[in-house]
Amino acid sequence: MQRRNFIKGAGVALAAGALAACTDKECPPVTTEQATGAAPTPKAKPVEWKMVTTWPKDFPGLGVAANNLAALIGEMSGGRIKIKVFGAGELVPAFEVFDAVSRGTAQIGHGTAYYWKGKSEAAQFFSTVPFGLTAQEMTSWLLYGGGLELWRELYARFGLVPMLAGNTGVQMGGWFNKEINSVEDLQGLKMRIPGLGGEVLRRAGGTPVNLPGGELFTALQSGAIDATEYVGPYNDLAFGLYKAAKYYYYPGFHEPGSVLEAMINQEALEALPADLQAIVLNACKVVNQELLAEYTARNPAALETLINEHGVELRVYPDDVLHKLRTLSQEVVAELAEKDEFSRRVYDSYSQFYQSVRKWTDISESIYLKARERG
Ligand code: CA
User: Fold this and answer.
1) How far is the CA of 124 from the centre of ligand 1 (A)?
2) pTM of the entire structure?
C-alpha cells in the first residue's frame, strides 16, 4: 500500500515538474495518468454478443428498436459490450429466436412472448391480452404488479431472463378486402392474427394464421390469407399492406398494448459483472419507453399518408362486432387459466391487477380523454 502511494505521489511530482519547465504554449497535454498518478490499465477485450430478432433487419419501429437496444448497451457500457444484431432469417428464422437464445447460439433475442405459446400457454400474458391492459397499465403490472417476477419464473425454465423492451401501444385492427359489417362477415375469414386474438377469431368463425411480419405482404397479395393485422400505421405503411387490401379497421382489440421483449441467456448474463448486468437490463427499459414514444409520434403522419396518398378506407369495427369479440375474449382468457397451474397463477395476478387499475384508469385517463374530445 505504502509503495503504491509512493509511486502515485512520484507520478504527480513528475507531471508537476514537467509543467513547471515549460511555457504555456509549449506545454504538452497532461494525460489522465499523469494528472492522477494512476497506473495504466490494459484495456479489457469487450464482451461480444449476438442478438437474434423476430423482425426484419432494420425494420422501422420493431427492428430499429432492436438496433437501438444493442447500440445503447454498447454506449452505456463504454464499449465493454458489443452486440451484433441479426434480423429474422439471418442467423435463425423468426420463430426460432427463443430456442436459439435458450441454447446459447445467441446471447440475447428481441421478440414478443406470444410467439412462444408452444413453450407455455402462459407466455401470451406477457405480450398482450385482448381487451386487456393498455401499454401504460401493462408496464405497471410488469414492474409493480408482480408480472415480471412471474415472467422471470417462466423463462428461467429455459435458461432465459426476460425484460420488457418496447411497446406498440394500441394496435390497429387490421387489413381487409371487404367491409366487416357484422359478426357473420368474420365467418370463414383466413386472417393472420397471432396470440390470443387468433383464438378469439377462431371462435367468431374465422381461421387464424400465424406468420412472421416479413411474410405478410406476399401472403395477403397472393390470397393465401384474406386479411391481416400487423402493428399500426407506421409499420403497416412500411410493409406496403395498403397495396394488398383496401379497408383498414380499428381498434386493435386483440393487442391493446403489446410488450416487446428482450430475452437474455441466463448464463451469459450472469457471467457479466454486476454493473454490466444492470446496464443490459436497464437499457431494455429505456428502449421500452422510447419505442412507445416513437410509435405515438409517427403513427399519426403515417395514417394521414395511408388515407390521403394511398386511398385507404378507414373503418371502425361496429359495436356489435366488438361486443361479440369482447365476450369471446373473456372466454378465451378464462380458459387459458385452466391450462396448467402456472397459467392460473399468471391469470390471477393479471386479473387482480386489471380489476384494480381499471378503476383508476376510468377516473383518470378515460374520463379525461372523453372530456378532451368534447371540446
Ligand atoms: Ca399485431
Assistant:
1) 13
2) 0.86
Peptide bond into 130 cis (omega under 30): no
Q: Is residue 351 in some structural domain?
A: no
Residue 42 confidence (pLDDT)? 62
* 3-state SS, residue 32: helix
Please give the average pLDDT of every successive group of 10 residues along the chain, which has 375 residues: 41 41 48 52 86 95 97 98 98 97 98 95 96 98 98 98 98 97 96 94 95 90 95 95 97 97 98 98 98 98 98 98 98 95 97 97 95 86
Which CATH number goes with the domain that contains 270?
3.40.190.170
Query: The domain containing residue 146 runs over which residues?
Result: 47-168+257-296
Residue 285 placed within a domain:
yes
Is 353 domain-assigned? no
CA of 197 to the centre of ligand 1 (A): 9
309-to-68, 76, 214, 312 alpha-carbon distances in Å: 30, 41, 23, 8
Do 320 and 185 share a domain, yes or no?
Answer: yes
Say yes or no: 290 and 157 in one domain.
yes
By the 10 Å C-beta count (0-12 exposed, 13-18 middle, 19+ buried), 133 is classed as buried
**Residue 206 within a domain:** yes
Q: How far is the CA of 308 from the centre of ligand 1 (A)?
A: 23
